[in-house]
UniProtKB/TrEMBL annotation:
This is SNF1-related protein kinase catalytic subunit alpha KIN10. CIPK serine-threonine protein kinases interact with CBL proteins. Binding of a CBL protein to the regulatory NAF domain of CIPK protein lead to the activation of the kinase in a calcium-dependent manner. Signal peptide: none annotated. GO terms for biological process: intracellular signal transduction. Coiled coil: none annotated. The gene is KIN10. SUPFAM superfamilies: Protein kinase-like (PK-like). Belongs to the protein kinase superfamily. CAMK Ser/Thr protein kinase family. SNF1 subfamily.
């Protein structure tokens, strides 16, 4: 399937029925619900290819002041073409909803997979981590680097390394290195850069993670250095 340009359609939104705005897709079950909308599995009528359709309510987006963030997410997906990044196929805008038609990842969310298993063995975690490094895409405050939440000047690669370090920790430990129900407390923990390395981690993992989760972005490990690390290359 190829990427289609953004389409704008007049008329009512979800109240008029999804079939009116998605005639090329046979809608299936809802597989995810978030603060801005939901995600449904669908099948292309002509090709029978399965896709995931993110349905975002435009009023909620505006009320939560998320318009720019959604716009950037769509633009990034449109520009990025990588085997380890979800593909964007089509965007349909109506007065009420925005429909984002994307590649369907049948294995589901990585977060849910790790939670279900408790934690991953290092060989499996390494395989997933290598793919993540190959195509980085993070965006949650739980994965945010200290310089981001402190609103300091920063560049992309250093921030990506921090986020990947958090993900690697989660893959191997089944928990996040920095966690708190209250966001101010969470930010303080991130800025402090203090976390516990469980005893079950291998020496290689215990060496790699702290170098990625270094609070000082200048001293933080780089992507090329990660690729050269013995744990990454096993």
């Amino acid at each position: 399937m190829i990427y289609f340009p953004i389409s704008k359609m007049d008329g009512a939104g979800s109240g008029a029925g999804l079939d009116m705005f998605l005639p090329n897709y046979k809608l299936g079950k809802t597989v995810g619900i978030g603060s801005l909308g939901k995600v449904k599995i669908a099948e292309h009528v002509l090709t029978a290819q399965k896709v995931a359709i993110k349905i975002l309510n435009r009023r909620k987006i505006k009320n939560m002041e998320m318009e720019e963030k959604v716009k950037v997410e769509i633009e990034n997906l449109r520009l990025l073409m990588h085997p380890h990044i979800i593909k964007l196929y089509e965007v349909i805008e109506t007065p009420i909803d925005t429909y984002i038609v994307m590649e369907y990842a049948k294995s589901g969310e990585l977060f849910d997979y790790v939670v279900e298993k408790g934690r991953l063995e290092e060989d499996e975690a390494r395989n997933i981590f290598q793919q993540i490094i190959s195509g980085v895409d993070c965006g949650s405050c739980y994965y945010a680097a200290p310089e981001v939440i402190s609103e300091k000047l920063y560049t992309g690669p250093e921030v990506d390394v921090w986020s990947c370090g958090v993900i690697l920790y989660f893959l191997l430990c089944g928990t996040l290195p920095f966690d708190d129900e209250k966001i101010p407390n969470l930010f303080n923990k991130i800025k402090g850069g203090i976390f516990i390395l469980p005893s079950h981690l291998s020496p290689g993992a215990r060496d790699l993670i702290p170098k990625m989760l270094c609070v000082d972005p200048v001293k933080r490990m780089t992507i090329p250095e990660i690729r050269q690390h013995p744990w990454f290359q096993i």
